[in-house]
Design a protein that fits this description.
278 residues; alpha/beta; Rossmann fold; TIM Barrel; 2 domains; 4-stranded parallel β-sheet; two-stranded parallel ribbon; 46% helix; elongated
Length: 278
């Protein structure tokens, strides 16, 4: 339902072999947004089809099963996946949609409307608050029991960078630099934009000079060029901050910080007593 890019919507219509098909929009995930519903009719009202929609807040009929099974296409909109699934189960739509699938009705959707058909999948519908609460609760419990070890928090969702980078400052220990670390950009974030964002977010709310740098994992020889890539990005980023006047042009000091992040800090963090520091 993007006015400048109708390819997905036209593709969905093309998958139906029946002429002038009945297509029903289900905007549950957006809370039955009026704006979203209007966008649906703005496009599909001009196509060779019979558009309608199902609002659970203002249902068109008590017999939702007959209403939906009368359609050729069911198109689910995006929004909050968690809320969508809860409401569907409450209204019995999960069972109705399974019946629609078995009867050969075309099921489609975008965002939450595409992931809702699967047994499992990743979602951002739970919000940052739950991530922050659960992580802080666990770390705090271990800290109160005197059982919190040196910990590195890795994040696969960059939207949580600020949460984790801020949280690590809550758990300190005398004589230990950066006991809880905000780990390097990893997995889905292991690229130039992900690395720059992780470093920038950590520098904004934490202490970059305590950072233990890039990780090595099971990818063996691929880890060596990755570390070089990380060092280049780190130096480029710090250099741009100096050039822009955000940092003082003390090359000796920043050179030492780069060495610490790329090598010395991890030697100290893991207490590698027989390893020579730079």
């Amino acid at each position: 339902m993007e006015p400048e890019n109708p390819l997905l919507d036209t593709y969905i219509l093309d998958q139906c072999t029946k002429a002038n098909p009945k297509i029903c929009f289900i905007p549950t995930a957006s809370g039955d947004s009026e704006h979203y519903i209007t966008k649906f009719y703005d496009f599909f009202g001009k196509q060779d089809c019979q558009p309608s929609h199902l609002s659970l807040f203002r249902p068109p009929t008590r017999d939702l099963e007959s209403y939906l099974l009368d359609k050729e296409i069911l198109y689910v909109g995006g929004g909050n996946t968690k809320n969508l699934l809860i409401l569907w189960k409450e209204w019995g739509l999960d069972s109705i949609l399974r019946k629609a699938w078995k009867e050969g009705i075309l099921l489609a959707g975008i965002s939450a409307g595409s992931i809702c058909w699967f047994e499992e999948g990743g979602t951002d519908s739970y919000g940052d608050g739950q991530i922050a609460h659960a992580t802080a609760k666990l770390l705090d419990l271990l800290d109160k029991q005197g059982a919190l070890p040196k910990t590195i928090l890795y994040c696969v969702n960059p939207n949580a960078n600020y949460i984790l980078a801020s949280m690590i400052g809550n758990f300190t220990e005398s004589g230990v630099r950066g006991k809880v670390q905000f780990g390097s950009a990893w997995w889905f974030n292991d690229h130039i934009d992900g690395m720059r964002r992780q470093l920038t977010d950590l520098a904004s709310v934490g202490l970059l000079s305590n950072f233990i740098g890039m990780l090595t994992d099971s990818r063996s020889f691929l880890s060596y060029p990755r570390h070089d890539y990380f060092r280049r990005i780190l130096c480029q980023l710090i250099g741009s901050w100096i050039k822009e006047g955000q940092l003082p042009p003390d090359m000796e000091r920043w050179g030492q910080i780069v060495q610490d992040i790329c090598y010395n800090n991890v030697v100290d963090y893991f207490d590698m007593k027989e390893t020579v520091r730079l």
